[in-house]
Amino acid sequence: THFGFETVAEALKEKKVATVFSSVASSYDTMNDLMSLGIHRLWKDHFVRNLNPGSNPLTSRSPISPGWNILDIAGGTGDIAFRMLDHASTLNHDAHTRVTVADINPDMLAEGRKRALSTPYARTPRLDFVEANAEHLDMIPDASIDLYTVAFGIRNFTDKDAALREAFRVLKPGGVFACLEFSKVNSALFDAVYKRWSFGAIPLIGQLVAGDRDSYQYLVESIEKFPSQTEFRDMIERAGFLVPGKGWEDLTGGIAAIHKGVKP
Ligand code: SAM
Fold this sequence. Notes:
Mean pLDDT: 90
Structural class: alpha/beta
Low-confidence stretches: 1-5
Strand content: 15-25%
Shape: globular
Distance between the termini: 33 Å
CATH class: Alpha Beta
Number of strands: 7
Bound molecules: S-adenosylmethionine
Strand order of the largest sheet: 3-2-1-4-5-7-6
CATH topology: Rossmann fold
Helix content: 40-55%
Order of helices and strands: HHHEHEHEEHEHHHEE
Number of domains: 1
Number of helices: 9
CATH superfamily: Vaccinia Virus protein VP39
């Protein structure tokens, strides 16, 4: 690109994201509850229940590796990973499904590892943590993953298309890409209320509870900039995925949405 501006902007964004998540890591879980009035838990529960990890095989696999091989990208403090393993074990009586939590930020991973100690999965082959950038998953072999999840992560990625291409590469044929992310609210009235909350209250709560207004201001702005449901569905298709139905499910009037793609 001209004068390398794009590269500089990308490097700055990556640095900004790193600073934001390092500074919010220790207060991240409390802040999620406050900012979403606890609703993020319901969305995450629904996301996992709907994917039904550990049920029938998603892809053909050898008898020596039963269970699903799940990669939770931008897995942060482990919210999705622990839910996946609980669901597989409790509802599907599957003790083999395993999750790799990958995140670019060592501080978020450290919080995740700490939280894992109060689950049955710490130091078992069912759970591991790796520091990785979603755009370059060199340590994950081609066609090795049954389910790729990313919850509230992709809007922070500098090159979302590169991340989608990596998701496609690491999934097995028949494997599923599933993304839970903030999205666009459907009704104008609800949108007005929601914008007041997010632009007004969230940075303020950030300041009061975590002593960090700027990071929470960044989080709100990153939500605003993220593509609409249809635009994101088209990006998933362009990466090579087959998109079931209309391609997404709105949650709470479109505040969040679940997008899915299947690798043919
Ligand atoms: N998935 C968790 C959840 O739902 O609670 C954490 C979401 S948190 C809002 C976003 C996470 O994305 C942070 O942990 C951040 O470090 C991570 N992240 C940002 N850019 C990334 C990238 N390029 N590759 C991998 N992780 C990234």
